[in-house]
Amino acid sequence: MRMTMKSAILCLIRGTLVAAFCAGSLPYIAAQQPPTQPQPPRLEFPPPTPNDTLKSVEVQPDHHVIFRIWAPNATDVKLQAEGPEATPEITPDAVRKAAAGVPMLKGDKGIWEVTVGPFEPGLYRYVFVVDGVSATDPRNSLSVQTTGGARSLYEIPGASFLEYKQGVPHGAVSVIYYDSKATGTLRRMHIYTPPGYENGSARLPVLYLLHGGGDADDAWSVIGRAGAILDNLIAAGKAVPMIVVMPAGHTSEFHLAPGLHFNFEPFRNDLVSVIKPYIDSHYRTIADRDHRAIAGLSMGGLQTLTIALNDSADFGWVGIFSSGWFGDSIKTAEDTDLAPYRASGKPFHLVWVDVGSNDIALENSRASVALLNKAGIKTEVHESGGFHAWNNWRDYLNLFAPLLFTPGEAK
Questions:
Q1: Is 45 exposed, middle or buried (0-12, 13-18, 19+ CB in 10 A)?
Q2: For residue 31, what pLDDT is reported?
Q3: DSSP H helices in 33-172
Q4: Residues 6 or more apart from 103 whose CB is under 8 A from it?
Q5: CA nearest 89: which of 118, 68, 60, 64?
């Protein structure tokens, strides 16, 4: 193909312009490109440790329990665990030693281990003490609150009455925050409602259930398994459906007055003037004393005595677990609690008392029962085996709840 002179000149001009354009535009294009971004640091995971797959609590078929914790740099590790106090053959000295701490042995890879037991079926608390520092189990998410911190939980299966079971209708436990005019603070309580409450219309009786000293308002629902106990009793037809109110027993004003006399007035005011009206206005209750009970363990038992005697117009059923007046308080109880009851108190349907044969509150309980009887208050007294411990208090609730809100004359 022949190219004319004119075509050749045009091609030459076009090529020159294109080359010039391209050459001139390169710096412009480069100037508009974003600067090179630095690469993010490479994500590096810490190397695996024995703690990653550690089984910290292992319940054996014979009810011995193996505890483990990975603490490679520790020099001294102890286990403080409940459980011995539930075993009938155990001695008070063995319980004291367990509470002080059982030494653990350091093995391969920095894992400390100890085997204890055998123990009775139930739910128990424990902590590790690592070089003098108390710590919950980092490999166990189950825990319960106390005023001094949290404690981990372990369970030995076999206590059927406190286990959540398939095929049994379950109630609900709600966490309620409320403003207390009695204490001037925001406070919390746990409330159990029985199976079917949300979709029902019936009004129900109420049990106010109080925890012991050092515990919190989650104690009865978590370590005490109150929800499971009531579920199982109601399903078996042994207890009537009821609402269970579990308030916080400690207040900011809580203290021991001289002579070991507890000042329960702030808590009493909170329960009677704030909590009780709140429950009756927010829940479908039968709001009279015949359908209102109060019970408590240890410190909660003393609070129960104080409230029941001073506010007998509000509570018709009373349960006292491992408790009673002690020290100088029993000397003043006739004036502070029993005198008002004698003056205007109403008779109770039931005053139910239970305490363990090795319980630190045994003699206080007996002396308090004698004082109640002297005031003309009839009591139903039981003395179980065991210690001042949750395995007893769960048993007591299981025995006490079926007695509530049943037809009968006041005693």
A1: exposed
A2: 53
A3: 92-100
A4: 76, 77, 78, 114
A5: 118
Cα–Cα distance for residue pair 186/363, rounded to 1 Å: 37
CB-CB neighbours of 404 under 10 Å: 22
Within 13 A of 116's CA, how many CA atoms are on the CB side?
31
What distance in Å separates the CA atoms of residue 208 and residue 189, rounded to the nearest whole number?
A: 11
Q: How many CA atoms lie within 13 A of 384 on its CB side?
A: 24
- CATH 2.60.40.10 corresponds to the domain 54-158: yes
389 neighbors 86 (Cβ within 8 angstroms): yes
Please give the model's pTM, rounded to 2 decimal places.
0.86
User: What is the per-residue pLDDT for 352?
Assistant: 98
Extents of the domains making up the chain: 54-158, 161-403
Burial class (CB in 10 A: 0-12, 13-18, 19+), 127: buried
Give yes or no for a contact between 266 and 183, defined as CB atoms under 8 angstroms apart.
Answer: yes
Question: Taking a C-beta distance cutoff of 8 angstroms, is the pair 366, 330 a contact?
Answer: no
Domain 161-403 has CATH 3.30.950.10: no
- Please give the C-alpha separations between residue 232 and each of 218, 292, 402, in angstroms, as whole numbers: 20, 21, 11
| The domains spanning 54-158 and 161-403 adopt the same CATH topology | no
The pLDDT, as a whole number, for residue 182 is: 93
Q: What are residue 188's DSSP bridge partners?
A: 177
Task: Determine contact, residues 205/234, Cβ cutoff 8 Å.
Answer: no
Which residue, among 213, 317, 328, has the nearest Cα to 264 in the 3D structure? 213
Contact criterion met (CB below 8 Å) for 211 and 249: yes
Compute the mean pLDDT over every residue in the chain, rounded to the nearest whole number: 88
Q: Are 226 and 244 in contact, with CB atoms under 8 Å apart? A: yes
The DSSP bridge pattern shows strands 172-180 and 206-210 to be unpaired
